[in-house]
Every structure is written in C-alpha cells, then in structure tokens.
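Hi,

I'm pasting everything inline rather than attaching a file, because the server keeps stripping attachments. The sequence lines come first, and each chain or strand is labelled.
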Amino acid sequence: MPPSVQTRREKQKAELRSELVEAAHKLVQEEGYEGLTIRKLAKRVGYAPMSVYSYFADKQDILFALAEDAFETLARRIEEHSSDDPIEALQAVMTEYAAFGLGNPNEYRTVFMTEKTRLPEGRSYEDMEEGNPAMKVLISRVEACVAAGKLQGDPRAIATMLWAVGHGTISLLITFPFYPFGDPQAFVKRMCDLTLATLSTQNVPPLTETPVNC
Amino acid sequence: MPPSVQTRREKQKAELRSELVEAAHKLVQEEGYEGLTIRKLAKRVGYAPMSVYSYFADKQDILFALAEDAFETLARRIEEHSSDDPIEALQAVMTEYAAFGLGNPNEYRTVFMTEKTRLPEGRSYEDMEEGNPAMKVLISRVEACVAAGKLQGDPRAIATMLWAVGHGTISLLITFPFYPFGDPQAFVKRMCDLTLATLSTQNVPPLTETPVNC
DNA sequence: ACACCATACCGTACATGTACGGAAAGAATT
DNA sequence: AATTCTTTCCGTACATGTACGGTATGGTGT
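And the predicted assembly:
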C-alpha cells in the first residue's frame, strides 16, 4: 500500500518523539538525572510544557524511553562478550548485566525498580520480554546451555531464576552502596556461580507447576 | 542523672514526632499511599505545612518511619514462626519475609528499593543492620544453622546472599506483577530451596575476600 | 465551496515538595 | 533584670508534574 496521509503523519509524530528523546538525553548528560524536567525539555525543543504530553503519557514514560535506549546498548555489549562454552557465555550475560546496572543505576532503576501497574500500551508480557533485548539474550543463552546438556529443564524457568538472582544482587548493590558487600563484581560472580552450581545439578520444571516437595 | 530540661525537651520532641507518625499512618489507611502529603499531614495535627520539617528531614523520612513500624511487625511475625530444625526456621524467615513484602509492597519499596545515598543520621551500616529487626533475625537464624553444622562458613556472608536472593525474588514479584512467575509463594520457595541447597554443600568465605577461582 | 472534525499545540490553574528567612518564646548567660 | 542564644513554628515563594479546556490548522466528506 502507498504511504497514505495517515502513515506520513504517524511517521512525523515518531520523528518528533525521538527528537524529544534525544533532547532529553542531552539534558540528562548536561545536568544530571534530576535536571530533566518537563519544562526544560519543552523549552529545549521550542514547545510549551504541556505539548510534551502529546508524545509521552507522563514523565515516567520519558524516563522509560531513555532507559530503553540504554538497554539496547547493553544488549549489544553483551553480544560482544560471548564464548564457545555456553556456560561461560551465560556467565558473561550476568557479568555485563551487572556492570551495566552498576554503571547506569538510574536507567536500571526506571526499568526494573518502578512498579509496572499497567503494561505500556497494551503489550503482553511476552512483548515486554521480547522488548527487552537483554532479557532476550539471556533466554537464548540459557537455551544454548540446555541444548548442550549443561543445564536441564525449562529455559524460561531457568532464565527467570537467574534473573531474580541477578536482579536481587544488583539492586541491593545499587540501593545500599555502603553495605559491606565487598567488591561488587566479586559479589555478583559469587551469586552467579552459586545459582548456576545448583541449577546444573537438577532438572528445572516450568514455572507454572508447583514444586513437589512439601 | 536526673531528667534535665534537655532530656525533657527531647522526650517531648519524640512524642510529637510519633504523634505525626501516627497521623501519617491513619492518613495512609484512609486515603491510600499517595494520599499522604505534607500539607494534609500538617493540617491533621494542626501545624503549618513547614513545621513538619522540624521533625522529619523530608517526605522520604516520613515514609521511612512508617516502614520501620511495619518491619517491626514483620520481625514479630517471623519470631512466631520458628522450628526446632534450624534450616526450617531459616526457611520460615524467607517465607514470612516474602509474605510481608508481597502484602506490604509500599513499605517494602521505601525500605529496600529507594537509594540510600546517605545513611540516616550518622548511623553506620551495622546500626542499620541491627536497626532492621528482620535482618537481625535472619542473621541469628543463619548462625543457628552454622552452629548446628547445617551450613558452614561466614554467617554474615550467608545471610547477605540469602538476602540478595530473597530480595531479588520479592522485588521482581512486586515490580512485574503480570510476569508469569506462577504462584508467588511457590516461586519464593523454589528460589529459597535453590539457594539453601547449594549453600549447604559448600563453605562460604567472608564477603571481603575475593573468591579464589578466577 | 462549505461545513465538519481530528489533531497539535498552548495557557491557565492547581497540588505538591521544599528552600529561605523571619518571628516568637523560652533558656542560658551576664 | 537585661541580654543573648537556641529552638520551634510559620508565611511566603518557587519549581515541578499534570489536569482541563481552548484554539488553530489542516484534512475529509458533502
């Protein structure tokens, strides 16, 4: 079908939106995270403050757009760190994930530490999972481990459990920077090893099932 | 020493502070979490809005005071759920901790999911650890397990790792309520079992040390 | 050509957290 | 008793997020 008026308009709207995201990005770079305010952002692109709301539902939405960019960078960085050994490749995911979280605490927080009361704009959780490129890599590398016989069970369940461990570790490190975790990277590695050690010795059933014992 | 003027004043100040906390508590009960505003709170106790700041550094400080109350309740609830078997007693901590987090997401968030840039009022992390009664119980039950030979290694390190796992699990459940974790309690149990299984098979060195293997 | 309407943008207004300086009152010191 | 200091409380002011309604502009249907 030819580019209708409708689609041209949508394209223009998308362009303006990404222009706003870019401006927001610069603002954060220049003035830090809390230097990003709706009014400043609007002034930057020559709009009235309220006009920003034509492109973003609320401020959270802007932060989320920024964070999504960051997570694409993360995914790329993860894919640069791979290995022939599927377990090592999996460990690399955790390591890079942790390095990213510790290096970009604000982005990490907006994506993983603010409640998702509503999924953003009618997406299912699957879209969300596919939407987060980092999570996508995690799952695929878990699948590789399962395929290689290094892990056994349901890949999604394994990935979710790894996610929980990784997230717990990173978010504690971010939230309690003064707590004596020792070297952050070492702590991450320990947690990661701990989890993989057990996961590799047992079959992991899918998540919907309730475990048998007790 | 006799109660000086100084101490009487401090006592009165503390009373007024807890009066404010109580009022805040009622406000939250009546109007929900975001119904708690400085202005409403001040009006409730007959002060001008700014006077609240004589008793609390900022709004976060109020939320924290509320959350501390909640965590004392949690600690009491945990101590009601014990067991002769130290491992079971430890599992009970995790179970109650999870139930609490899922049942009081707001309190959980303010305590464990908002950055602690500064420790509140010159406390060390140890005070903070001692200050959180739930964490205190966790550590003591870990120590019991170590004493009974069910776990081996540094109790603080073990407790911290358990904390990381528990926190990761709970905060994901809170943050992504729509993600298909399956039954929350079952997921928590799985994570807990997973961790304890491995921890029980290996010696856990203190946190300050870096693990030997690469 | 005309009326209609969706869309994009804006102006105003409000509730909120909180910085700042001031006032009042009581304690401490002289 | 007079003065100075400290503590408590407040009034004002500002930046912020955002709700609401208005307006203009350009495309659509008659």
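Chain B has two domains: 1-56, 59-213.

If the labels don't parse on your end, tell me and I'll reformat.
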